[in-house]
């Protein structure tokens, strides 16, 4: 039995997403309040070869994933919740050769929509690279299309 079942569930969710595996993302922290994912710096995600700055698409992927997986921190059971809307305000470019962390929380859960917000940072959470808000549609526990993902995340039969 894990000492932090939310961390374990977030890690299983993340490991089921192939694009996150390719980007080597990992769960840095997770609890009932928020989720933090880590995107390690890599030459594969450089957007500007002259400066070594990370491509904005990698930051977008990090933040969409962080907001989406933060849902497992607040829902008692797994549900498929696709992204409805995601807004990212970039504050400044990520510095080369440094990992990026994405932090997200669910600040409102309704029967149909989940509202999230968060930020990306490198060394100092007080100096964010970007701010994000996202909304996710609740499709319910019994969604047919999510049975395989649910099985992978919960570690058993769907």
TrEMBL record:
Q: Which GO terms describe its cellular component?
A: cytosol
Q: Could you cite one Gene Ontology molecular function of this protein?
A: 1,4-dihydroxy-2-naphthoyl-CoA thioesterase activity
**Keyword entries, A-Z:** Hydrolase
Extract the SUPFAM superfamilies matched here: Thioesterase/thiol ester dehydrase-isomerase
Whether Hydrolase counts among this entry's keywords is yes
Domain Thioesterase, chain residue ranges per copy: 52-127
Give the source's domain of life in one word. Answer: Bacteria
This chain belongs to the protein called PaaI family thioesterase
């Amino acid at each position: 039995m894990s000492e932090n079942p939310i961390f374990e569930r977030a890690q299983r969710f993340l490991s089921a997403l192939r694009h996150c595996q390719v980007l080597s993302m990992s769960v840095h922290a997770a609890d009932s309040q928020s989720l933090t994912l880590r995107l390690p710096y890599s030459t594969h995600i450089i957007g500007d070869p002259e400066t070594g700055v990370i491509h904005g698409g990698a930051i977008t992927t990090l933040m969409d994933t962080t907001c989406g997986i933060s849902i497992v921190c607040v829902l008692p059971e797994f549900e498929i919740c696709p992204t409805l809307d995601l807004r990212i305000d970039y504050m400044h470019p990520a510095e080369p050769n440094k990992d990026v962390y994405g932090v997200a929380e669910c600040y409102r859960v309704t029967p149909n929509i989940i509202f999230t917000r968060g930020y990306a940072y490198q060394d100092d959470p007080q100096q964010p690279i970007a701010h994000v808000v996202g909304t996710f549609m609740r499709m319910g526990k019994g969604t047919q299309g999510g049975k395989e993902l649910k099985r992978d995340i919960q570690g058993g039969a769907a």
